[in-house]
Amino acid sequence: MLDQQHLKYFKNLVGGEDFFTDLAHLNAYCYDATKERHLPSGVIFPKNEREISQILKYCNEHRLIVVPRGAGSGFTGGALSVSGGLVLSVEKHLDKILEIDTKNLIARVEPGVINKHFQNEVEKLNLFYPPDPASENQSTLGGNVAENAGGMRAAKYGITKDYVMALRVVLANGEIIRAGKKTIKDVAGFNVAGLMIASEGCLGVISEITLKLLAKPPLKQSAMGVFNHIEDAMNAVYKTMSSGVTPVAMEFLDNLSIKAVEERFSKGLPKDAGAILITQVDGVVKEQIAWQLNEIEKHFKANGCVDFKIAQNEQEEQDLWFSRRNASQSISVYGKKKLNEDVTVPRANLPSLLQEVAKISQKYGFKIPCFGHTGDGNVHVNIMLEDPKRDLEKGHQAMEEIFQAAISLEGTLSGEHGIGLSKAKFMPLAFNHSEMELFRNIKKALDPNNILNPFKMGL
């Protein structure tokens, strides 16, 4: 609870219309996409960087916990206030695109700008911002930086870290720093901006982001390959990607995911297929598109593809991608609750990873539909629980074994979702004692009183 001194300070600072302790607001900001609920002590909406600074300075002096929050669309509890404290939300006021520089191909934005809105605005100028997380219609750019968000286009264009040129960050003591520059090259000093990316609000509050833009490719086209065996599909992925073709996206659905989409939407998918791969290429001239699709078809068929379809118009393009975009909601046919994680391995290790998932599925008796971004080795594994009360503990054991399998295959706990609360206890699987101590020492150096998003990432 916040005492009267704290209540008075925050109301005087931002005004009564931007600071709330009533139950309605606390409930609205007590959960994220995990559906876990942790009630904060208050919710505050700063209007600018100066107010963020004053909020953090005061909270640091009085040892009040602050939980930075974008849109609350994360899957790991990164924006949950597990010990009360103050939720600092950037969504209400800090949502402006400050500059789009068409000469230097950069943009400056506030952290509350919605990803898809930003994409749309730069595309009006024939520019392109590639990171496209599944939450692009809800998630903020500040949240994307804090989680290092990816998306389907990562296979060719990379993820958020590849587009962050500079940040303005408010530290736990209220000090404001600039990290990075607008220049393409900058080797002066430590890469502090890189340290802030994927830090999940544990090291500072991002107040401004400078992003790299690209020229928008005028042409794109998609195709789908059908495989009898999922191992063949996974082999086709890395062999295609190493052949000189770089698809914008290379996505997959396994048999369980295909069946779920078909059961729910009846789209005419091949329910007996072991897997489907959906890919997209882009370019400047038609010949470039045609060459890429021809090479992909060649490598797919050399690795067990039994049917290959190229979209010939926009409607067919949408139809091809429908199954992938609706896979997550469709797999609810297999259970009342899903444990959803996003392990990532080097592309060549995808066949081995999915073999291990199949063994774990058989061992525990769970259906585990998988889909995701095979172009960058990122697989969404979904342990489906028919009876959550009965099966939850066993489900967590199965997920830990999947994490162990990914780590043993030179992979990582998460490619997109982050660590937050849900994966915090698994960090020692991926990092040794010295590495975890390094993380904790960095956290302590920047936030010695541990007021910023404590308990996240195993820190």
UniProtKB/TrEMBL annotation:
Pfam family, one: FAD-oxidase_C
Domain of life of the organism encoding this protein: Bacteria
Recorded GO MF terms: (S)-2-hydroxy-acid oxidase activity; FAD binding
Record key words, sorted: FAD, Flavoprotein, Oxidoreductase
Domain FAD-binding PCMH-type, residue spans: 36-216
PANTHER family cross-referenced by the UniProt entry: GLYCOLATE OXIDASE SUBUNIT GLCD
Protein's recorded name: Glycolate oxidase, subunit GlcD
Organism annotation: Helicobacter pylori NQ4076
Gene from which this protein is expressed: glcD
